[in-house]
Amino acid sequence: MNNDVKSGSKTSPLLLLSLFLALGLGIRLYISWQDFALLFQKCVVDDALFYLNIAKNISLGKGATFDGSIMTNGFHPAYALLLVPLFLLFPDNPDMTFHLALTICSVFSVMTGVIIFLIVKEIAGEIAGLIASFLWLFNPYVIMISLNGVEVSVAMFFLSLCIYQFVKMRVTNAFGPRSLALLGALTALAVLGRVDSVFMMMSLTFFLFLAWYKEKKRLVPALAGPAIFNLAAFSALAPWFAWNLYHFGSIRQISGVTLPNVAHNMFLMKYGTYLSLSLVKTELSNLRIWLESIVRFSGGLPFFISALLIFIVFRRGSFMEDIEKLWEQMKIVDFAVLSALSLVSFYAFYFWGWFRPWYYLSVILTATVCLGVFAGYVLKAVRGSNPGIRPRYLVILFLVLAVYFSHRGESVWEKGLFPFQKQLYESALWLNENTEKDTKIGAISSGVYGYITQRTTDLLGVVNHEAYRAMREKRIFSYMKEKNLDYLVDREDMVGFFSERFDGEGFMDKLTPVKRFGDKASDVVVYKIN
What we know:
By secondary structure, the chain is mostly helical. Helices cover 69% and strands 4% of the residues. The chain has a five-stranded mixed beta sheet.
């Protein structure tokens, strides 16, 4: 382990870490117990209410279903199963289960900060680990995204454990069967936490092969390490895969199928064909949005630029030599960087228009680790032969970061991540109060409608295989009639899009608007289905 950067006291880094963790948890818990209506505009996403309904129905013995009748695999099991006990303990208190769900997200987000500290400590020392942990714990975007009520906080914890385990294996050169099996089990938990962790699984397989090939010098023996790793991972994933195959005939989650289908249909409605320069333009535009969002969400860019300038000033005489040494440290997490690049490419070039903030968080995790390693090397380079780092300099650094994050956090909180969801919430309340309890509702963004009314069918297909098939077969209105839906609610432009792309005849003339929540095409409208 490289401990070139240490404080004068062995206990002070742990004390500081404990303080950071307590403050980070306190901030998250304070937010988690705010009013539902406020949180639904600030950080909690509509998809979170899919999880709450699914977990509730599992606790009632109805199985994995959003609406109580249609089985779904449009969720990530690790988080969903953690929510089930909440409904067993508080079956008639939805407000309590909602806030406890966010409390679970808070705890996992803070525990990820601990693992980030351990990762960076292995590579660059304790002080660097503290800086990386601070960047994670107090980055306002990380806080807000982690409290969106979906699986991402749980997934990031298990993903960080994967990174830590492989970093330890590399630092200690411990690639034995036991270490590989543990790495495989942790990776499986990450995939069960969020399926796009499969990119980490693929990256680990590749780098394990390189490590074993370097030692064995032959192709076939070099496959043993990756084989043990994948055997452990797939053994842990087998029950989930088997359940999916039995119920749905595929291991793919329906949410990962229907969302790109919608995004690509939006493109085709606008351009008509993939065979145009518009395809290239769209791909590059998506990549640009991803890269800009990563820079914005990482929260550490000003810190990185400042540290780089200090590094150049103090080490200008040996800058290239330092870059080579820094690269050697960064190479320890090259597998995480490859995983992040693969994930970005997947979402930018295939998933397209669904730029949901939590998709970025695993990339932000990797960026935070890299920033911590960079900080550790800069601190080592700047101090030179001085064996200690004066505490006041670290205090100043953390104060500067705290002021910056406080300023950014105020702005992020004021705007909120999902201000447009205010209309979803208001229209859900209106439907619940102004329609008969035996009427049925269809919605495209259906989470909040299902959560509040308990009589809503998902029409986007995120938690509904039937709706997805109807969309593919261009008979979505017939499906609404089959399900005896009385009302359709969503953004006016989204309803029009569904009418044009997912119904052979169109159905706008078969709807009667009964309540509008604004005059723009992007505003929500409640329709009566004729």
